[in-house]
Amino acid sequence: MKSLIQSKNPKLIQKALESNYSAWGAPSLTLEEYFERESYLASSKFSKESLISWFLVDSDSPEDILSSCETYRIPCLLSTNDGIVKGFCFAIGSVYTPTQHRRKGYASEMMKLLQNTLKSFKDSVASTLYSDIGRDFYANLGWKVHPSKSLVLDQLNTIPSFEVSSIIPLTVDTARKLIEDEESQFLNQFKSLDKPRFAIIPTVNELEWLFNRGLFYSRVGKYKREDQIKSIGIATSSNDGYLTWSHSFKEGILYITMIQCTSANSKMLLLSAISEALKFGLEKVEIWNPSEDLVNAASSISKHFHVIDRTDSLSSLAVWGQEDSELEWVRNEKYAWV
């Protein structure tokens, strides 16, 4: 009989990592470096507070992993006709079935069991995931694909030289107050809209976890650097705009994980991000589901920008009891990715 279990058993977790290393570790990291990365991220406040490892196993052979995944419990807001609810969303990542167990329906079985389990948790209202295998598989299991556009700036070295002023670096501590203000802004935005909506409330701990992924790569293996990444993002000196970032050395992309800007400061913030990417040898800057102000700012900086529909990391959402609702995912940005 098959069952879904949650476990902190180090041997089981290591076995899962050995299995999925070829998908998410190689060739950028050795197996030992991959173990080190996962241990480093698991030691973060975000992981300690919210991470659960899940395994589909057979009771006759409980150490044989048929399929596995992780979830992170993240605060969220949901607005329906009954009012605004603050609860928790479970973000799903690292869904993986070992090669020898594929095409047997194990991933589907695991996801069905997982959804039923997540619904039973106190204050659980939704689940997200980011599909790398197209739209249909997870949609058929209840996770609806939402807009998954990206603004991509590339060929950064062709941009004429520029200077950026009135910008200050953000550390984790200085970012905290800015991020905490996001919740009240979400509430105000929800109250002004007249249709069902959902948003993940950003936290400093999750933003730091995303930032630390890039920080790890800058310290080991082929991407090791002498100069260290020092800031989690930047803000205007007047505090009327800011952004946070994550350096993906593996992809050559500086991801803007979250951005708060106006038409007046969006260009300056984007130029600051481009400067950061160039400093660390990254080829692109990418922003998920950009505002019109950001697209306009990008077009004023360079002709080498594109707004694309992503074919991977498709933003997918299941809201309990709202399966057929035309619900808007507000601030569907990179900060919510796991």
Task: Please write out the topology.
Blueprint: E1 2-6, H1 10-24, H2 31-42, H3 45-50, E2 51-58, E3 67-80, E4 83-96, H4 106-119, E5 124-131, H5 136-139, E6 144-145, E7 149-153, E8 167-170, H6 172-192, E9 197-200, H7 204-217, E10 233-236, E11 242-248, E12 253-260, H8 266-279, E13 284-288, H9 292-301, E14 305-309, E15 314-319, E16 328-329
Parallel strand pairs: 4-5, 9-16, 12-13
Antiparallel strand pairs: 1-2, 2-3, 3-4, 3-9, 5-15, 6-15, 7-13, 7-14, 8-10, 10-11, 11-12
Helix pairs in contact: 8-9
Label this structure with key terms.
338 residues, alpha+beta, nine-stranded mixed sheet, 9 helices
Describe the structure in brief:
This protein is of the alpha+beta class and 338 residues long. It is built from 9 helices and 16 strands.
* Shape call: globular
Would you report the number of β strands? 16
Give the SSE string.
EHHHEEEHEHEEEHEHEEEHEHEEE
Helix fraction bin: 25-40%
- Which consecutive residue ranges, at least 5 long each, have pLDDT under 50? none
Structure description:
The chain has 9 helices and 16 strands. With 338 residues, it is α+β, with helices and mostly antiparallel strands. The strands form 2 sheets. Strands 1, 2, 3, 4, 5, 6, 9, 15 and 16 form a 9-stranded mixed β-sheet that branches. Helix 8 (266-279) packs across helix 9. The chain is globular. The chain starts with a strand and ends in a 9-residue tail after the last strand.
